[in-house]
Design a protein that fits this description.
Elements lengths: L12 H15 L5 E5 L4 H12 L4 E4 L2 H5 L2 H8 L6 E4 L11 H12 L3 E5 L12 H12 L3 E5 L1 H9 L8 E3 L3 H9 L3 H7 L1
């Protein structure tokens, strides 16, 4: 972080676009604000559930995160005095996708969102047998009239597979970095450029 103090520095156009679009979610999001968190990496994503729940109306949790989130951890998260509702999806037999009840509930919330952020598939979408949850969530995102933001390699790959990537308002190339920025409202690179 010390190098920018001694050399000329500026944010690139893509970096600036990321900050501009993601800042809309932080500063003045159209409500209801919904976060959809799935995929893997529970050690980094699950702690952010509480961070998002402090500002969002809904946080929907699916994918491997559901398996990794123990009942004790869920109870601890639910014990916070949070403004929003955290909904953990139910998994199908084998744990490779969310079930029909979760798909319907998640889809209804997403379709009515004013702003929705999605990172991480709902299951093992690469296999046709387990793609339903991720595909249905992608379709709900596409039909939402609110501001739709997605990020992360697997999420982008899934939307591309289902032919819905162009229905999103903003596609962030940063998966974990996008979530970290939205949770912490800054990133080390931003701090280095602004200090």
């Amino acid at each position: 972080m010390g190098i920018p103090k001694f050399l000329p520095h500026a944010a690139g156009l893509h970096f600036a676009s990321e900050v501009e679009n993601l800042s809309k979610i932080i500063e003045n999001p159209k409500k209801p604000l919904v976060f959809v968190i799935g995929g893997v990496k529970p050690e980094t994503k699950l702690p952010m559930v509480v961070d998002f729940a402090k500002t969002a109306d809904w946080v929907l949790v699916g994918g491997t995160l559901v398996q990794s989130s123990s009942r004790q951890r869920r109870d601890k998260v639910q014990s916070y005095n949070l403004k929003c509702k955290i909904v953990y999806g139910n998994l199908t037999h084998g744990g490779f996708d969310i079930d029909e009840i979760s798909i319907r509930k998640f889809s209804e919330i997403i379709k009515n969102a004013g702003t929705v952020v999605w990172n991480g598939p709902m299951g093992k979408y690469e296999g046709e047998k387990w793609e339903t949850g991720t595909r249905k969530i992608a379709e709900a995102m596409a039909s939402c009239l609110g501001f739709k933001v997605v990020g992360g390699g697997d999420t982008i790959a899934a939307l591309t597979k289902f032919g819905l990537i162009d229905k999103m308002d903003y596609v962030s190339t940063g998966g974990g970095a996008m979530l970290e920025f939205l949770a912490k409202r800054t990133l080390p690179g931003i701090e280095a450029l602004t200090n």
